[in-house]
Amino acid sequence: MQISWVVDTGDLRIFHGGDTMFHGYWWLIAQRLGPIDIAVLPINGLVLAEVPNLHPSSPLPSVLLPEQAAVAAHLLGASIAVPMHYGLDRPPLYARTPDAVWRFERSVRELGIRPAVLAAGEYLVR
């Protein structure tokens, strides 16, 4: 199940994408809840490989890939994109997405969006 939300401070709208995958509702979200200023999106491209009781396994990502997250931020109209859920490595359940942060930064810049990669405990100042 995908759960996402929008936080609206009155001056700023932040989209938090939870563990979302690419879908066809990005435009609708932007139309109904936009403009989105900051999009926080997962980039780990999680593929569940060997999960007990889930057979056969799926080769498709259940979470956004870095490039998909960049496109989602673009479709939401975000001017800043923040990656999350990367750098995790728990074989055999799932493996780290290679070069996820670099791929995300490159992809969002190509779309004219400012990437904001934050360290744990760091916060974003617009």
From TrEMBL:
Gene3D superfamilies in the cross-refs: Ribonuclease Z/Hydroxyacylglutathione hydrolase-like (3.60.15.10)
Lineage, opening ranks: Bacteria, Bacillati, Actinomycetota, Actinomycetes, Micrococcales
Look up and give the organism this protein is from.
Renibacterium salmoninarum (strain ATCC 33209 / DSM 20767 / JCM 11484 / NBRC 15589 / NCIMB 2235)
Superkingdom, taxonomy of origin:
Bacteria
User: Which Pfam families does this one have?
Assistant: Lactamase_B_2
Q: Which InterPro entries match?
A: Metallo-B-lactamas, RibonucZ/Hydroxyglut_hydro, UPF0173_UPF0282_UlaG_hydrolase
The Metallo-beta-lactamase domain is annotated at 3-86
Question: Mind telling me what this protein is named?
Answer: Metallo-beta-lactamase domain-containing protein
